[in-house]
């Protein structure tokens, strides 16, 4: 839900900036949603690289090379997030992010089933970790909507 809050906040700030300063390309909701997705994926990717050990618990024990997988996912989030901002590769970056989100979904299921704390020090309450699963499709639809 923190990711969704970031998407909404950045998207709405972009839209507001467009209207306040009369910037035509920021007055387009779909473009603002794209900017928000790019920024959030880049930030999350940086977090994966800055504190990878805080995320390995989500896959340790059922996938090998947990640390390397966290680092790879961080690099991919940064590259693909930045790719959303480049028109020539935007569609490929979006599909890459959609595939990455689907690949990460089992880790979120693992956290919920095993009643582990959510990443980033977010609540470990079952209602929160299970509710995070409902948002994964929202993020996938968000990215898809940005490129259609």
UniProtKB/TrEMBL annotation:
Q: Which UniProt keywords apply?
A: Membrane, Transmembrane, Transmembrane helix
Protein name (Swiss-Prot/TrEMBL): DoxX family protein
Instruction: Report the transmembrane regions from the record.
Output: 6-26, 33-50, 62-85, 92-112, 127-147
Lineage, top-rank taxon, reads Bacteria
Question: Source species, please?
Answer: Chitinophaga rhizophila
